[in-house]
């Protein structure tokens, strides 16, 4: 699949979000700084952050797949020539 | 009762395998080790799997195995910040590292300082970047030595039956000699193969200890019922939330500025393999999260707790993981697990020392002595890395061992000041070198000043036990982030007011434009 000019901007925005969203959620301590609900005895504070760490892999992998495809389609985009 | 003979025999036997792998690594995919990029970048031939393990080794170090559990044990939930830090740092890496990799392959850079010199056309800035990198790694190497020492001292304690300064000192000397010999002989190739071995041992340890410990006390619920009321182990106390957030942010931005991590990145074989291994590394971080919980679990094991009681409070924390290993696993498995923790400090320390040697020859010595032969370059790098390890020892004494994490956080204060030149420089030509130099120096100066103030008790410096600075209005924040703010303000304002001349390096500007297209 190819990325025409008008789509390229949207793809770039998507790439940015795939990195920013997990970043912001992990950073926003007040949203997970609670004891309840516990999971297997672990306070929410702990299990939520562990889960979040594992889930971060999903947007990062998506970023990798899209970026790889982009640089394959137009060598100038990701590879910087050579 | 702990069976010391079995533990030590197994430890030594598995260490022999490690040493064999280290030497075999030097010959593996044979390259000419007298060439700097062969010794230091493994000939840039690492695939996704090996790059994954090598960068994993950069990140999962004595910081993870010793410092984080120790802090969690001594100071509570605040130090769980290491988990969101790891989750974010790989996003930061995805944003900046593939670009650095591409430019480096094209222009033959092997350090971040190489890039800065070419990009901003400033020798002074490049040298300052190299010096900052070398100095920031010193406390980080010291942390690895503390980790290795903890394992040896915990084992020797079992033999001697009592704690003494002699045991601590012997452990420190042995740890240091092994580290120096290992780095000198094998270079990055040796480190990569041993990194894989180390990781197998570590994962085995984490899984076995977590499963057996949690089952034997009947779930995490009981573990949290057994912790002291203070400090707060359940959540971060509200006054420390800004501190927690800035520790996460500062650490996440800092990691990929470290020279040894850049080194690992540049040794990847392709941009695709680099991205793939980076996006999978958060899974690897799960080990870190569970190791951190050892600092909570230890309270449920009276035998392990009484073992910790043999050490003074200032160094007790680093024995949390060794103690849990000794008192929850059978002797032979404990020997393997302790070796995992030991080489978990050894391998990263070697990788860091290699990066320091690399920076010194390539970005400092060569600036003044242009006619250096490749062989001379490689030999200076090897000797320098030995000397730096010696200097790092000094930091071991400046920080009470329980607070070993402060060594890494102190390194972070320095290394984070490279962000405007190294990260922002990858995407923009806008910054002026003069502004970046002043910003860097102001960031480092203000950071060190705050670190000293924050650790001064009753008018005297009391050893590094905190990296948070009380700002009053914004409560306590991680010093590295405040210093970065100072640095950024100066870099931005300075770049805005310094009049623009013609671009000094048309060629570089051209390259960057093509890359941005």
Alpha carbon gap, first and last residue of chain B: 66 Å
Which pair of chains forms the biggest interface, and how many residues does each contribute? A-B, 40 and 51 residues
What's the total count of β strands of chain A? 0
- Note the main sheet of chain A: none
Biggest beta sheet summary of chain B: 2 strands, antiparallel
Compute the CA-based radius of gyration of chain B. Answer: 22 Å
Q: Can you tell me the CATH architecture of chain B?
A: Up-down Bundle
Mean pLDDT of chain A: 82
| Proportion of residues in helical segments of chain B | over 70%
What is the quaternary state of this protein?
heterodimer
The named CATH superfamily of chain B = Sodium/glucose cotransporter
Strand segment count of chain B: 4
Layout of SSEs?
The complex is a heterodimer of chains A (82) and B (517).
Chain A: H1 5-27, H2 44-73, H3 75-78
Helix pairs in contact in A: 1-2
Chain B: H1 4-27, H2 36-41, H3 48-59, H4 62-75, H5 82-107, H6 112-120, H7 123-160, H8 165-217, H9 220-225, H10 241-254, H11 259-266, H12 271-297, H13 302-308, H14 313-316, H15 320-328, H16 331-368, H17 374-398, H18 405-415, H19 419-427, H20 433-454, E1 456-457, E2 460-461, E3 468-470, E4 476-478, H21 479-497, H22 506-516
Antiparallel strand pairs in B: 1-2, 3-4
Walk me through the structure.
The complex is a heterodimer of chains A (82) and B (517). Chain A has 82 residues and is mainly α. Chain A has a domain at 35-73. Helices cover 70% and strands 0% of the residues of chain A. Chain A is built from 3 helices and no strands. In chain A, helix 1 (5-27) packs antiparallel against helix 2 (44-73). The longest helix of chain A is centred in the last third of the chain and has 30 residues, at 44-73. The radius of gyration of chain A is 18 Å and the shape is elongated. The relative contact order of chain A is 0.14. With 517 residues, chain B is an all-alpha fold. Chain B has one domain: Sodium/glucose cotransporter (Up-down Bundle). Chain B has helices at 4-27, 36-41, 48-59, 62-75, 82-107, 112-120, 123-160, 165-217, 220-225, 241-254, 259-266, 271-297, 302-308, 313-316, 320-328, 331-368, 374-398, 405-415, 419-427, 433-454, 479-497, 506-516, and strands at 456-457, 460-461, 468-470, 476-478. In chain B, the strands form 2 sheets. Chain B has a two-stranded antiparallel sheet with strand order 1-2. The longest helix of chain B is centred in the middle third of the chain and has 53 residues, at 165-217. The model of chain B has no long low-confidence stretch (mean pLDDT 83).
